[in-house]
Amino acid sequence: MLSTYLPIVVLFALAFGFAVFSVIIATITGPKRYNKAKMDFYECGIEPAPMSSGPNRFPVKYFLTAMLFIVFDIEIIFLYPYAVESENLRLFGLAEIFLFIGTVFIAYAYVWRRGGLDWD
């Protein structure tokens, strides 16, 4: 029974070994030229403020947009298998998809009601 999982274990071991090998080789053979520009903070192309001025604060809408994007991606990931197997799932699958889309719609309605989709 466990012998059927042997190829998967070997594949994971090879992938892990390749990742570790690549990181080690890159640190050994890579150039080590450090300068101020490489060691400085970088955030989406925005020039960082001096260290003494305190942390920069991003608007909440920035994070809300990121979370909505993640919810949208997860929605698409869950809808894809249904689209592939919609003929086999029949009425049960249709009911489950309506339940899922309804739940996501409630989340979007909440965000819309709270003003998360309004751009000033």
From TrEMBL:
Its main location: membrane. It is found in: Cell membrane; Membrane. Keywords: Cell membrane, Membrane, NAD, Oxidoreductase, Quinone, Translocase, Transmembrane, Transmembrane helix, Transport. The keyword Manganese does not apply. InterPro entries: NAD(P)H_OxRDtase_bac/plastid, NADH_UbQ/plastoQ_OxRdtase_su3, NDAH_ubi_oxred_su3_sf. NDH-1 is composed of 14 different subunits. Subunits NuoA, H, J, K, L, M, N constitute the membrane sector of the complex. This is NADH-quinone oxidoreductase subunit A. The lineage of its organism: Bacteria, Bacillati, Actinomycetota, Actinomycetes, Jatrophihabitantales.
